Amino acid sequence: MDFRFTAEEEAFRAKLHGWIERTSEQVFGHGGAIGASTASLLDVGDDGQWRRLKEYHRKLHEAGYAALHWPIEYGGGGATLIEQAIYQDEVLSFGLPLYGCNQLAIDRIGPTLMFMGTQAQKDRYLPKMLTGEEVWCQGYSEPNAGSDLASLQTRAVIDGDSFVVNGQKVWTSLAHRADWQVLLVRTDPEAPKHKGISYLLVDMKTPGITIRPLVQMTGESGFNEVFYDNVRVPRENLVGEVNQGWQVSIATLMYERLSGGTRHPVERTITQLLELSKHVEFDGMTANRHPYVRQKLTQFAIEARCLRLSRYRSLTAHLKGKIPGPESSFGKLFATELNLRVAMFADELLGSYSALDKGSLGAVEGGRWQQRMLAARGLTIAAGSSEIQHNIIGERVLKLPKG
């Protein structure tokens, strides 16, 4: 297989790299996003950081990079699959979010509306997703319906021209920043759990919605609890058919698992871990000279390369016209589990210094490795836990019998 870019693709990569380098420094300061941890960059509970993310999104849109993967007819870049892959690699190499402040909308909600929404919904919502004027969140998980999403119990009943919603969602990223939400509700409680679900578009300023931020052990507050008390949603905000929302939600989840899988910036994290090993001691010597450390770093690098090659395999399938399937679960599973092992090894490498939080005297690299260690486990749960991904791979890819 030839991994070399054509002259045109290399020119696109070089132009994009230069733009990201300049813009990230303008928005995020000296060193740009490379100097910050991904966790702190995406701390949407910080008002100042949120303003910077909004500004970065505005610049992305003005430069035509906000949604390269969207068709031109919807305001996107109409980029080739190779150009999209180049964009993802370059952005992640800087530790930046792929789609500015509106990741959920541009990555998965917008594409879902393109294929399953009405023309009126496309005309109303897609343009403001692109500009970042309207930020979106995703109302899926509930206290008793996380990885087993089909067990959700938030209810919606039809009353005239509206759905009336009552219930609760949890772990809702960006809810306290979002203008709109895609919301899964149960509209037929008598139907089997994968039936009787509907997919709604909800204005987050609607009366009856209460949002409570959840502070994680990292100190960040990107997640939220959301409560619905007789919230009225116009019937024209239904996507697809009543009681057929599971099919719509699966389309959104497939995009989510693609974005959470082989696009995870684990290669960048491994590169930074290698650099860290040059400056700390391990068992009486510089860490990068110790055989045990060298073996671990080499193994991480090999697995990261395997992940990249797997992504190229998926890219090849797309170039041949195949659509994403359950194989996307492999990328999500492998990347987040590898990221967890990398974070745990950084903890081992730093020894007692790993316990020092950001801002603490003696904290190595500002405490960013502790932040990564605390956050890494959550990534194996988000977008479908590792256990769920194992089941999908076993049952749908390997065709193994259900246990």
Describe this structure in words.
The protein folds into 3 domains: 7-101, Orthogonal Bundle (Butyryl-Coa Dehydrogenase, subunit A, domain 1), CATH 1.10.540.10; 136-244, Butyryl-CoA Dehydrogenase, subunit A, domain 2 (Beta Barrel), CATH 2.40.110; 260-397, Up-down Bundle (Butyryl-CoA Dehydrogenase, subunit A, domain 3). It has 12 helices and 10 strands. A hairpin with a 2-residue loop joins strand 9 and strand 10. With 403 residues, it is an alpha+beta fold. Helix 1 packs antiparallel against helix 3 (47-63), helix 8 (266-277) runs antiparallel to helix 9 (291-319) and helix 10 (328-350) packs antiparallel against helix 11. The strands form 3 sheets. The protein has a 4-stranded mixed β-sheet. Strands 2-3-7-6 form a 4-stranded antiparallel β-sheet, with no helix packed on it. Strands 9-10 form a two-stranded antiparallel ribbon.
- Please identify the structural class as seen in this structure: alpha+beta
Shape: globular
The CATH homology group name of the largest domain: Butyryl-CoA Dehydrogenase, subunit A, domain 3
CATH class of the largest domain: Mainly Alpha
SSE layout:
Blueprint: H1 7-28, H2 38-41, H3 47-63, H4 81-93, H5 103-116, H6 119-131, E1 136-139, E2 155-159, E3 162-169, E4 180-186, E5 197-203, E6 209-214, E7 223-234, E8 238-239, H7 245-259, H8 266-277, E9 281-282, E10 285-286, H9 291-319, H10 328-350, H11 368-379, H12 386-397
